[in-house]
Amino acid sequence: MILAFTAERLLGRRPEPSDAEHYCRLFLDPEVTRWLDPPPSPPSDAQAARDSLERDLDHWERHGFGPAILVDGRDGAFLGRGGLNWTTVAGEFAVELPWALLPARWGEGLATEAARAALAWARDLELSEVMSLALIDNHASQRVMQKAGLRREGEIEHDGLPHVRYRLRFPRPSTSTVPFWQDRPYAPRPALNGDVRCEVCVIGGGIGGVATAHHLAERGIHSILLEAATVAGGASGRNGGFLIAGAAPMYHETSRLWGALRARRVHQATLDGQAALVRLAEEVRAAGALRITGLLRLAMDEEEASDVLAHHAALARDGFPGEIVEASELPDAVRRPGRRALLTPHDGAMHPVELVRSIARDLERRGVRILESTPAVAPLAVQRDHVVVATPRGRVVADRVVVALDSQLAGLIPAASAIRPRRLNACATAPALRGLLPMPVYARHGTEYVQQLPDGRVVLGGFSDLDGDASWTAEAVASEPVQGRLDRYLREELGVRAPVTHRWAGIVGYAEDPLPRCGPVPGTEERVFGLGGYNGTGNVQAFVAARIVSELLTTGESVDADLYAPVDA
After folding, report:
1. Beta carbons within 8 Å of 139's beta carbon, 6+ residues apart
2. Averaged pLDDT, groups of 10, the chain, 569 residues long
3. Most exposed: 149, 298, 327, 455, by fewest CB within 10 Å?
4. Burial classification of residue 171, based on how many CB atoms lie within 10 Å of its CB (0-12 exposed, 13-18 middle, 19 or more buried)
């Protein structure tokens, strides 16, 4: 039995599949359904009650908390259902305070006791607020809400019926919505004011843009780089800080999706790009921004443990590094019976903002001009022998243009419409006990990703599947339910009790294939090039794509010209 909360006379525990009889007993009682499923709702039946249990079980799996079975604290007798439940009310996704008791126990104050205990649980979970609903004529439930401390907000329509909504907001520890990587003093560069002419204009000040400007500078071209906000202000400063080779899918999956030859070429190109980034960091005096510690791809269950073996077998078959780490050898924080991981020794972690801005400063020393607060305005005006890039306070007339915007690529290159913006959530804690995670960890097929910095801070991202359809957005606003799930992962999975100091979201480009886009834009006579769509693994892949574009732009050819998908694929 997993306890959720305790009160003076009752307990709340996690539901179990064997609770189906209890759900039927509760949700088929006509006095209960009078308030929970009044007409015009169809009459409840046993299957509907079992479906409700399945939803509650799934809620616990997805969120780490949920509706609770209420039992008598003295004899363990079933009382009803309470707890907490994410739901949608009037278009708002919020945590609801539900309760339903067997009528035989009505009038004893148990509903108020259960509500107060669930609210205390919500505080422990660091939820920001809880709401509750009742039919307008359900005065007994409204008295429970009032006694529990919720405040009446007014009347709304829910499921076609008039309801009263109550809400309680909790004070939340102060956290910054600035990404941890960006939370440092910064003097922005001036914006473009007037018109300017150049050989190549690079649009985008993330890793893809500064890498393109770097590769061009290596070939003797001093470009002008335009950034809509600040260098490393977008996805490059809002990620998890991983320095990993390979594509977004695991290596054995890329072989299945793209064929063995392309999978090998992409993996080798990213290994080479990773090594080149390490060398570049040393050259630009940012070696401390990288830590080559190795990376653990951690299996969370038996099925994933088998997948880890398949992943390792594919790497070994093609001569790429990687070794299996069994449960007994895993770091204490993630060691569990039956777990297994794949160690890739060449991977590691990075401070993405420090690296990207160090490269930018080096570019300026080499003659590259960088203009911030200078967004390019669509459309690009492609002429016979040049391209005009319009900005709010001036124009850039360039022989060639490179658009390196990842998730926003289609904004300037409509042909890249296959790339969609997606929100990924992350957080960072105050310094915790050092040594919990000696290397970054990828878990649940890479859906969760976590690293511990040298000062003990833990940076965690993930649970994009919990975000669901809401994740497909260009708005970098953190998701409340995802952030709550990250909090519980820190406490329950990693044992981290240090408070969260930063919460943020980053917008990255996703393609269904999932291949990055890279190359000339059709119909522009190779005057416009684009790169982006790294499916959340852009720190190294963008560096590779930038090299390819710079080679195509300067020589007309690249041995890796067909490594990634065309821009219009």
Report:
1. none
2. 92 97 95 86 88 94 90 96 91 88 96 96 85 94 96 91 93 82 95 98 98 98 97 97 97 96 98 98 97 97 96 98 97 94 98 98 98 96 96 98 96 96 96 90 96 95 93 94 94 88 96 95 97 96 98 97 96
3. 455
4. exposed
> Collapsing DSSP states into helix, strand and coil, what is residue 127?
coil
DSSP secondary structure letters along 211-250: HHHHHHHHTT---EEE-SS-TT-SGGGSS--EE--S-SS-
| Helices 302-317 and 251-258: angle between axes, nearest 10 degrees | 70
- In the sheet that holds 3-6, the strands lie side by side as 3-6, 10-13, 67-72, 78-83, 100-101
Tokens of 405: 């915007």
Question: Among 194, 315, 242, 122, which residue's Cα sits nearest to residue 536?
Answer: 242
Cα 279 to Cα 209: distance, rounded to the nearest angstrom: 18
Measured distance CA(543)–CA(274) in Å, rounded: 8
Please tell me the distance from the alpha carbon of residue 334 to that of residue 340, in angstroms, as a whole number.
Answer: 10
**Other C-beta atoms within 10 Å of 180: how many?**
23
- Longest CA–CA span in the chain (Å) reads 85
Residue whose C-alpha is closest to residue 484's, from 130, 25, 58, 12: 130
Distance, in Å, from the CA atom of 130 to the CA atom of 461, rounded to the nearest integer, reads 24
For each of the domains in the chain, give its residue range(s) and CATH number, in order of start. Answer: 3-169 (3.40.630.30), 176-293+350-417+513-569 (3.50.50.60)
